[in-house]
Amino acid sequence: MNASIRAVTLDLDDTLWPFAPIGARIERVLDAWMREHSPATAEMFPVEAMRALRERVWRENPHLAHDMGALRRMTLERALRESGGNPALVDAAYEAFYAERNRVEFYPDALDALARIAARVPVVALSNGNADLVRCGIHQHFAFQVHAHEHGAGKPEASFFLAACERLRCAPHEVLHVGDHVDADVRGAALAGLRSCWINRVQARWPHEDVIPDLHFDSLAGLADWFERVAEPA
């Protein structure tokens, strides 16, 4: 791949930080919040039951797969209603969730690498999740963020990638999408016409034959090093 990359679109969860620890903390924080503010809900929906309810709401509403916030609110509202709690507590419960969701612990290489990449090309956040760049403390490194819930679809839909390209005023082949997920990130971007970079921190094997990533690193630092070696500033 040559160095004619004018911009980067970047996945967030499991690319800049691991999501599993965040998910576990969210469950504990919500459980504690319910025990304080709606004990009947906490009694009826302890951690495992709340998780099962969330998964059920996800399955019942596939049309909202691109809107994690809406699905989370639906889960909280249903838990409150079914337990005889006060549905008016949804906003406060959601805020407890959202504050914890944005308390991220970056991979050791991620912040420095992000700053190095952003110094060379515009970087756009392109994530199916609902992380808030300001709350995460990294908004200064991004030109903007494309939200799946606002666009109406998320990765791997081609329109999601192309919306970012259009806003960047770049042709798809001038944009490099960077992420950890084989299908949502790398294959999805490639099929949409973007260049692709797989951040493979777990040393997995590439499973597809029809599409391969243009770049492949075991950390975001590897991509930052690549830009500093061969890429020209935008």
TrEMBL record:
Domain of life where this protein originates: Bacteria
Keywords recorded for this protein, A-Z: Hydrolase
A GO term, aspect molecular function: hydrolase activity
A Pfam match: Hydrolase
PANTHER family for this protein: HALOACID DEHALOGENASE, TYPE II (AFU_ORTHOLOGUE AFUA_2G07750)-RELATED, HYDROLASE, HALOACID DELAHOGENASE-RELATED
UniProt-recorded name of the protein: HAD-IA family hydrolase
